[in-house]
């Protein structure tokens, strides 16, 4: 499938690897959050253009902060956190207690030097789903190659932290399609 990726899309994947390698995380897997961080780092390409057109340029740090907060909550979305609160479970209190006992980032998997790691960064299930969905998105838009914009569109379609954070910042599949393709590109790939 990577032979269908444009240079911009490949650069996003490489950037995601860089985020994993530089994070010191225990799992050493590229996850959807890493793909979003790599997209936020980029300046060229259609994906970053669409983010800028939707006003995300000035709020990139806010997106990064929201991703860090979700990571500290063990990857729970705000919707999941709110649902647990409805059951009387205070995720913030749980995070605080775990971090008090085990250190900041304990639920995030930030265990530098602990555990076994093969030295090879792999794709997590979520990142694989985003890559596969990006192909379906490109095909639905009748695009021959998978660009960074297709990765971004796929991130908005996959339920989870990146889609929630982007939506909270006004970036949805529909708003991206309007910016990237105009009103005629409403084909949705599931």
From TrEMBL:
Residues 2-186 form the Clp R domain. GO terms for molecular function: ATP binding; peptidase activity. The keyword Transferase does not apply. The keyword Repeat applies. Gene3D superfamilies: Clp, N-terminal domain (1.10.1780.10). It comes from the Bacteria. It comes from Streptomyces luteogriseus. This is ATP-dependent Clp protease ATP-binding subunit ClpA. InterPro entries: Clp_N_dom_sf, Clp_R_N. One of its GO terms (biological process) is proteolysis. Keywords: ATP-binding, Hydrolase, Nucleotide-binding, Protease, Repeat.
